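Just scan my protein:

——
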Amino acid sequence: MSEEEYKFIEEAFKKDNDYIRSSLEASLDMMCLTQDNSVVYVNKNWLKFTGRLLAEELGEGRFNRIHAEDSPLVKKVISSFIKTKKPYRI
């Protein structure tokens, strides 16, 4: 691959990445989870709404604030969403 081709691909990737990031940040409440329900991203609007820091939300942080009796149901619903990609409400 030539240097010119590499630069073209790199610039296209940066534009896509910038577009995706701006879309995530514009959402009211955005979180990204791994398949085992570990939070790896929440957007700035969520942090502003909760008044919490990113470090407090990552991993199990967001789920630690759910009442212990409700946590299994919430995780089950979110796991179902990850598998089916169908919208959900709790």
In short: The chain has a mean pLDDT of 80.
